Amino acid sequence: MRLLSIELSGFKSFAKKTTLEFGSAITSVVGPNGSGKSNVAESFRFVLGEQSMKSMRGKRGEDMIWNGSGSVPRAGRAGVKLVFDNTDRALNLDFDEVAIERVVHRDGNNEYLLNGSQVRLRDISELLSRANIGASGHHIISQGEADRALSASSRERREMLEDALGLTTYLYKREEAEKKLEKTAENMREVESLRRELSPHLKFLNAQVKKIEDAHVLREELFERYTDYLSREHIYLRLARAELGEGKELEDEHTTLDHRITQLRKELEKKHDAGSDELMALEREGRETAHAREAAVRELGGIEGELRALERMQGDGPALPAREARDFAESILSLAEGSKISELISLARSFIQKLSVSSGVHSRAELLEKKQVLESQLKDLQEKEEHVAGEVSVLRKKIEGEKDASREAERELFAAMARRSELEGARMALRAREDALKLEEERFKEELREAAILLERVPDYEQETMFEDEPRSAQEERRRKLERQKIRLEEAGLGNSAEILKEHQETTERDQFLLRELADLETSAQSLRLLIEDLTATLEERFVGGVEKINAEFDAFFKLMFGGGSASLQVVKETKLRRGVSEEGSEDMDVEEGVEISVTLPHKRIKGLHMLSGGERALTSIALIFAMSQVNPPPFLILDETDAALDEANSRRYGDMIETLAKKSQLILITHNRETMSRASVLYGVTMGSDGVSKLLSVKFEEAVAVAK
Ligand code: ATP
Description:
By secondary structure, the protein is α/β, with parallel strands linked by helices. 62% of the residues lie in helices and 13% in strands. The protein has a domain at 2-164 and 632-708: Rossmann fold. Strand 13 (682-688) and strand 14 form a beta hairpin. Adenosine-5'-triphosphate (ATP) is lined by residues 12-13, 31, 33-39, 63, 65-67, 143, 692.
């Protein structure tokens, strides 16, 4: 990997685009004070990603941009482009040439470009650190910074050494691993907290699921019981129904009996009615005939009385006219009444009555004729009466006979009625049984329905099981037990169990997921810890080994510069109290490793760096810088007037060392030193005119000496 060129445009005093090409191992930049040489060194820092403006003698990004002069207006941006030959692929990019570019704008915004494509600063830093161009800039020694290695703190010195030893990549990796570990730990805390949050709900759900499982066991038991109970009940109902079927005969018999009874009743009624009506009519006829006969007798008696009266009054003479007879009779009556003889009075009255009855004048002949008629009538009536009486007696006999026949029918009727009421009793009992059975069947259906809902399936009650005979009360006992168990099951509340089970499964899965996540995180944390341990071990090993090698070189360079004495680096451990100490105290101590320098000068009793002169400090620094560069040569090394404080003898030694270094690293030397200039193969002169713009020109050694003045 070789540095090909650097191009400055608008960077500090380089208002115009200026390109320095580095065709050889040693390039010197010379020029008078204030011409802009150091700006060249700083342009390297800038393009390599330096973030500290202070180290580039600025306060903010804008200070890097050409600020204008009387004749040249200020620029809007400053850009520096560094081009490497990458044919050896030291930069991990598949390009033969790699151009790294940084641009800063007036608003302070920075752009980084890799072969023209915009990238992040981090991409540049990583790319470079792999090629041993670290961020600490140990390979760019700015003006007056030669003794930076000496004035730095032991911690900073360590960083410088780590960088110089090319350990930055490992440091980056370790830092990254530590960040990842911290992030992992944070994730673990988050996951743990999520699990903690989940825990009470999960506990609750576990308890619910336990309840549900218990309820399932209960339900299984209930299912068994139901199956047993319902099977028995089914058989019982089937038998009961069959028994009731036999009641049909009863019904038939009842119907037949009913018909027979009606029939018998009708028969009996008819017989009874017919005989008695006829008898009654006959008897009435008898009575009427008797009355008629009595009336005829009485009338006949009257006629006979009249006839006798006629005979007494006139013998055979004509009868008195009726008018006279009455008058006569009434005079007799008044006489009789006067006599007050009651017999006489009644006789007179009866005579008047008879007179009235015969009304009119009846001749004897008429009376006789009438008598004859009456006597004939009477005879007829007597005959009729006798005839009717005979018929009545015949009818009565007939009725008596029929009554005997009816008695049979009556007996049958009574027997039928008795049987019927017996049947009705049985029928009522049967109907009651039927009703009860219907209720039982209804209940069975209801129980089956309930069981199906509760058990979520229909118990198989139709299986052909043989059951021993048992009293009905055994089933009732079973039913009671079922009821109790049903209540227990209902209390267990299997209602929303599907939801709970689903939620439980989801929550458990989530918890398991978190647990796996935690395990994964722990695994990756573990491998990160191992990686960190590994990197730390590698770093430690390389660092200690590197420091050892540097020490050897350091001591050698030091001896060369000072013509004797010795110099060495010591790795020291400083124990510092970490901020935010916890009660445990000691565990929060941070062990920081640093590097101390100790030197002994020939013929001098010098202890401690602070006792060195300026020149001695510069020499010591140079020895250290050169030692570091020797052990792990950077691709290029920029030394800005590092040789400023050297006397002639030391300048020569410096020149020798430079030539040694140039075998491994490209050197860019900003110098006023003649000796140094003489070692360079390419020389650039920097000048600045009245326009304040730095200008670059290639010069020969003699010109360079002149330009530098
Ligand atoms: P010396 O030999 O004395 O160390 P030098 O050659 O290293 O000098 P520099 O320090 O590189 O000189 O140059 C400083 C010059 O650059 C100053 O004149 C300063 O005004 C000029 N300069 C610095 N920043 C800007 C800027 N942003 N715009 C214009 N000029 C600038």
